[in-house]
Design goal:
mainly alpha, three-stranded mixed β-sheet, two-stranded antiparallel ribbon, 5 strands, 568 residues, 25 helices
Length: 568
């Protein structure tokens, strides 16, 4: 197979590519039979796959080393080209929607691509191309700023990702100092962070108004491809989180304060330490984690075995944290080669293991559905994608000892409790963004104050005493990449985590049966809307209040009866 380093990148001739796309539009309009129209459809899918492959390769290689000037320029090219090409993609969508063979296409490929095409038409006009290009540039600037971080700490200099282990160190003073050092970097760069976001908010608000919306929120939902639920459904979910989950999470942190011998509520630094003896940590090197991942996937199912061996053989995981590397982690597809790719920053924490499960959950969906036509059916919508990843984390529980050794019991408790305590945070991120885009006139200071207010609603366990100014003054949202780069893409994690907790519950009863539900969900790829994917896999919708109520009760009961003997 072709390894990642051997995959060829070539910037396309933009005018030629536009011509190709325009030609396919005219051919589809002129088609006099479904056979001809179908051939044009398949050719357009090939063009889109190849274009996406080149863009993806440029972005991956740039994120691996943001200092690489060649790929920095290539990403700038795609930042400008993407919005221009969208005009041609929209012309294609129009042609498909008005094709006399629409019924034939729906019968063979399903109607979802038409639903999504109608939504896509609502997201674009040539009038906003320059704004979209500027948006891409500002997002890239934010990413490069974070990647450039050099934080002095204890005689060394570290990136943001490399600071993570220090932020959960068992030593109280060292941990607090790490939070302060990281927070100081953000404070030192606060003017740039405020300016970048302020520009993005006003720019997106302008986009929405140019397209005839009240501002950005409606456009943001369309851009996220929301095709089976509304802003009102999300608001109801947020209310259910406050009603059912915040009290459970609050109880988890009260118990944590007792274990640590701390006064409740605790500081951000103390909330980061779950056990006095230290948080669970992987028991081996990065290579050991990948080897245990291979064992896990080999034993889980024949499909996962073939998948993960493909990932390793193709060098399709870049997981070490290095200087100049972009922060965070992600999974994407390299469509021409029919493989996924995982990007991450290992840092010696339990998050390293969750990369091998979470990001590989995304990758498994992409690999399992790699042959789907059109390519958009490989991945479902974002919240549906996150079900693959968050649920896969729980499927790894029976193999946790190979990852964590003597910290296995700690990990099980930590993983489940973290899943519960994450949802209020993620819901707060969503609520914050709704407030921001409903009031784009807010100043940076007002945005920080709004975040601080929401902390009191969704995370009352956080002590806002000024000990770590960046966090306690309501600025901590600036480290959340999605708020800058992917507005409204965060409630997706919360919806997905609610579904993943259903899988956790099923795994406790019968791993094999739970896996059958997972495969029934994943085999559908992106061929159905989120709620239909769930229904066909025998899963409850997170928009049903009873769903969140049930998983909260089940997980709370498990945690309360968990044997903590021998765990300090």
């Amino acid at each position: 197979m072709v390894k990642f380093s051997q995959m060829e990148y070539q910037r396309p001739d933009l005018e030629h590519l536009k011509g190709e796309m325009a030609q396919q539009v005219e051919k589809l309009k002129a088609a006099d039979s479904y056979d001809v129209a179908r051939q044009v459809f398949v050719e357009m899918d090939r063009i889109n796959r190849h274009t996406d492959t080149m863009s993806t390769l440029a972005n991956i290689r740039h994120s691996i080393d943001t200092r690489d000037t060649f790929y920095d320029e290539e990403v700038k090219f795609w930042n400008a080209a993407g919005p221009q090409l969208q005009e041609y993609q929209q012309a294609w969508n129009q042609a498909m929607l008005h094709s006399p063979f629409r019924g034939d296409f729906s019968q063979e490929f399903g109607d979802l691509m038409f639903v999504n095409a109608e939504i896509a038409l609502k997201t674009f006009s040539p009038d906003i191309i320059e704004l979209m290009q500027k948006e891409n540039d500002l997002t890239q600037e934010y990413e490069k700023l974070l990647a450039s971080a050099q934080i002095p700490f204890e005689g060394g200099v570290y990136t943001l990702s490399q600071m993570t282990p220090f932020k959960s160190d068992a030593d109280d003073i060292r941990r607090l100092n790490a939070w302060k050092a990281e927070g100081q970097w953000y404070k030192d760069n606060q003017e740039a962070l405020d300016s970048l976001y302020d520009q993005l908010v006003h720019l997106r608000d302008e986009m929405g108004k140019k397209l005839g919306y009240e501002g950005y929120t409606t456009l943001g939902y369309y851009r996220m491809g929301r095709n089976c639920y509304t802003k009102e459904d999300v608001e109801k979910f947020r209310q259910a989180v406050v009603k059912y989950l915040v009290p459970v999470a609050d109880g988890i942190y009260k118990e944590q304060a007792k274990r640590l011998g701390k006064e409740y509520p605790m500081s951000f630094a103390d909330n980061a330490l779950e056990f006095r003896s230290g948080n669970p940590r992987p028991c081996g090197s990065a290579q050991d984690i990948l080897e245990q991942g291979k064992k896990f996937y080999d034993q889980l199912s024949p499909e996962t075995s073939e998948f993960f061996r493909t990932m390793l053989d193709g060098e399709l995981l870049d997981v070490l944290s290095t200087e100049g590397k972009a922060g965070g982690g992600y999974c994407t597809s390299i469509l021409d080669y029919q493989v996924p790719f995982i990007f991450a920053n290992f840092n010696g924490t339990q998050g390293d293991v969750e990369v091998v499960t979470h990001e590989a959950g995304h990758a498994f969906d992409a690999w399992l559905n790699r042959d789907r036509i059109p390519a958009e059916y490989i991945w479902p919508s974002m919240e549906a994608c996150e079900v693959h990843s968050m649920s896969m984390e729980f499927f790894a529980w029976p193999w946790a000892h190979g990852f964590f050794g003597e910290d296995t019991r700690k990990f099980h408790y930590s993983h489940l409790s973290s899943a519960l305590t994450f949802i209020p945070y993620g819901t707060m991120v969503d609520h914050f963004q709704h407030e921001v885009y409903a009031h784009p006139e807010m100043t940076p200071a007002q945005r920080h104050q709004k975040w601080k207010e929401l902390l009191g609603v969704y995370m009352p366990w956080m002590k806002l005493d000024g000990e770590i100014p960046f966090y306690s003054e309501g600025e901590g949202w600036q480290r959340q990449h999605h708020i800058y780069s992917s507005p409204f893409y965060y409630i997706d994690y919360c919806l997905a985590q609610t579904v993943a907790l259903q899988f956790w519950d099923k795994i406790q009863e019968d791993l094999g049966e739970a896996w059958e539900h997972y495969m029934a969900y994943t085999r559908q790829g992106g061929s159905q809307v989120f709620t239909t994917l769930l229904e066909r896999a025998g899963l409850d919708s997170p928009f049903e209040e009873s769903c969140l109520q049930r998983v909260c009760a089940s997980a709370k009961n498990w945690l309360e009866h968990f044997d903590m003997s021998g765990i300090a």
